[in-house]
Amino acid sequence: MLDHQSPFLVQRSGDLVALAEERIRDAIKLGEFSPGERLSEQVLCDTYRIGRGVVRSALSRLAHKGFVSAQPRSGWRVCSITASGLREITLGRARLEPLLADVDLSGDDIARLETLCDMQAALLFGGAADGSQLSLIREYERQIRALLAARLVAPMIADWLDILWHRAGHYLNFFEASSVQRLEAADWTDFVAAKKAGRNGDAARQLQHFCDDFADFTQACLLKSELAAPMGRKAKRSSISNDEVRVSRPFGDRPSLKKDFSMRAIKALAIAVSIAAMMSVAGHAVAKDKIVIDLVSEPSSLDPQKQWNPDSYFVYRNIFDQLVTRDDNGKIVPAIATSWTYKSDTEIAFTLRDDAAFHDGQKLTPDDVAFSVNRIIDKKFASPQLSQFNKILSAAVTGPHEVTIRTNGPYPVLLAQLVKLSVVPKHVVEAVGDDAFNLSPVGSGPYKFEKWQRGVAVSLVRNDGYWGSKGYFKSAEFRAVPDAATRVADLKAGSADLAVTLDPDLAAQLQGAGGIKVLTAVTERIAYLKLNPSIPPFSDVNLRRAVAYAIDKQSIVDGLLGGYDKPVAQLASPDYAGYVSGIEGLPFDPKQAHELVEKAEGAATQPIAFLTSPTFDQRIVQALVQQLNDVGFKVNVETVDFATYLQRVQSEKAKQPAISFGRWSCACQDADGISFPLLHSSSSFSAVSDPSIDTLLNSARNTLDEKKRVEAYKDVATVVAKDVPILPLYQAAVIYGASDKLEWKPTANESFFLNRVSWRD
C-alpha cells in the first residue's frame, strides 16, 4: 500500500532535523518569513522548541535546497525572489515533470486520480474559485502529484521534484500575495484520461502544459514587480477578500470541462452540490444516507479473531456483535448476553438473547458463541488475541440459550476481556475457511459487509433487521488515507465526515474552519518503546537503562503532542484497574545515558533498526530517534506497512526488532490487558522471557482479591521501571476531526459503533 506519510517516497532520516527543516520551510512558503528577512536561530529555537544544533542543521539543509542563505556576519536570511531563481525552478520542472507521464498506475491509482479530478471539477463548477476553494483545489492537485511521484522508480528524481515543488510554492504564494490574480488550478482530467488509455505522450504534453502555465503566470508577475534584481525585505502578505480572487483563465473554459453532461460532469455536479451544502453559510442541512470515515490504514483483517489493530477494530465492530459491551460511560452492559451468573470462581454462565440473526439469515445460537471463544483459544489458529483469552479453558453450550465459560483458576478480568469478543457464524467459517471469511465476513451486527476495495476503502450497508438500535446511516465507507493532511482536506471539502488520528497542529487548523469540530478524549492507549532483551544491544540491561535516561517524555508531550497526552511510568494509567500510584521510572538524564553508552563501547554504536509504521505519528518517532542518537546510539528508522509491522513484532523473540515504537489499547481498562501481552513470555507480542515477571503476572490473573492484584502489578511496574524491558512513554489522547453535524461521543477505549452515531439535520 502507498505510504502517503512520505508523498514522494524519499526515505528520510527520521530525526528532529528533518522535522525542523519541514516546519521552517513551510513557514517560508506561507510568507511567515519574508524574502530577504533575517532568521534568528534563537527565535527559531524558541518557536519550535528545539535545540540550536538542530536549527542550524535544518537551516543548512534549506540553504542547500535554495530556501535560505548564509550571510557573512549576519547569519541566515530567507532567499530573495529573483529572476534567476524562477528560471531555475521553471527549467527544472519542465525537464523533470514530464517523466511522471511514464509511471505505471494500477486500477486503484486511476480510480483515486479520477476521484481527485471530480473534487476539483466540483469546486470550480460554474466559474472562478474563491480563496478557500482554490486552496482545496491545490491540495487535491498536491495529492495527484504525490501519487505520481510515489510511483516513480527513481528516488533521486523524486527528491529533486520535491525540492522544486516546494520552491515553486514559495514563489507562487509570494506573487499571489502581491496581486488580485491567482494562477489557474491545473485541470488533470485529460491527463488521467490519457494515462487510463495508455497514451503516455498525451499525458506528458499535459504535464508540460501545466509547467508552461506556471512559467507564464510567474514571469508576468515578475515583470510587473520589477524583480530583475534580488529583493530586500517585503511586507508580509496582506489579506485579500474572496471577491477579489480570480484565476487567469476560468477553469470552466478548458475543453475537458465544457463537454455536455457526461457521466463525469454529472458526478462533478453531484459533488458540487454536496460541497456547496458544506460551504454555504446560509445553506440548509440535508439528510445523510452515507457516512464517510477517513482512517489511517486499511484493516489488516476483517476477521475479528485474526486482527489486533485500531483500523480493523474501527470497521469490524460494526459487522459483528459482541457477547458483552461497554456503554459510552465505560460500564460493561449486555449485548448478545442478556445476563450472566458465576457458578464458581472458575465458571460463568451467560444467558443469550434469542432474536439475533446473522446477515445470511441464520439465527445466532449458543453454538456460535462457544465456537467463537474456542476458536481464539485454539493455539493452532494463532489469534493475536490469544494472550487476552488464554485463561479460558473452554466454552460449552449448557442450555438452549446458555453458554458456560470455564477458566483456569479465578480470572478477574474475564468480563473486561469479553468486551472484545465478536461472535462469528460457525456454519459460515467452517464452510468457506478462514481466508475466504476474512475477504467476505458475515456477522450479526448493525451493519453488513458490502465490499473491500483493497488499499482504498471498506463499504458497509445498514442491517435493517438488526435486533438492537438501528444505525442512522444507510451505508458507511471506511477509507484508507495515510496522510493526515489529506484527511483534513477531505473534511474541509466535505468528502469525509469523520477523520481519525489527527495531531494537535492539524486540530488547530480545524478549530476555525466552518462546519467542522474537533473531538478529543484521553484514552486507555499507552505509548511505549519496546526493547528486545533477547538480542544485542538491549540484552545489556545498562543499555536499556540508557534508553530510559535518554528520553524526555515531558518535552515530547508538550512540544509535539500539544499537552493532550500524559507521561506515564508504568504500563497502565489511572483509568486502569491495577494502576499503582507512586511508581517512578528512571528520570530524563542524557548525561547518565551517554556515560552508559560509552561504557558499553562498540556494543552500543552498531546501527540499530528502529521499526515503525506510517500508522504512528512519525514526529514522535523522529523525536525518539534524535534523543537516542544524541546520547551516542546509532538508530535508523525502518518504516513498513502496518500489516508487516504486526508480523515483525509478533515473530519469535530472537527475530523481533531490537527496538520499536508502539501504542497499546486492550479495550479492557485493566492492567492485565496491556502488561500480560507485552511482558509475559507466552505472548506473541512479548520480547521478554523473565520468570519473575511471568510469576507476578500469573499471580495477578489468578486471584479475585483486588488488593493482591494491585500488589502484584506494583512489583511488575517496579521491575519494568528498573530493568526497562519496555519503556512506557505516555497515555495517548485521541483527536478526531468531524463535521459539526455529526453527533458522536469518543470513548477512552476508542470504540466506534455506527449505531451510536447520528446526524443533526
Number of strand segments: 24
Total helix count?
A: 27
Q: Which stretches are low in confidence, meaning pLDDT under 50 for 5 or more residues running? A: 1-14, 227-286
What gyration radius follows from the Cα positions, in whole Å? 28 Å
Describe it for me?
There is one protein chain. With 761 residues, the chain is α+β, with helices and mostly antiparallel strands. The protein has 4 domains: 80-235 and 247-279, no CATH class; 285-319 and 445-515 and 740-761, 3-Layer(aba) Sandwich (D-Maltodextrin-Binding Protein, domain 2); 321-423, Dipeptide-binding Protein, domain 1 (Alpha-Beta Complex), CATH 3.90.76.10; 521-734, Dipeptide-binding Protein, Domain 3 (Dipeptide-binding Protein, domain 3). It contains 27 helices and 24 strands. Strands 6, 13, 14, 15, 16, 17, 18, 19, 20, 21 and 22 form an 11-stranded mixed beta sheet that branches. The chain has a 4-stranded antiparallel beta sheet with strand order 9-10-12-11, with helices on one face. A hairpin with a 3-residue loop joins β13 (447-453) and β14. α5 (107-123) runs antiparallel to α6, α19 runs antiparallel to α21 (590-600) and α25 runs antiparallel to α26. The radius of gyration is 28 Å and the shape is globular. The two termini are 37 Å apart. Residues 1-14 and 227-286 have low confidence and may be disordered.
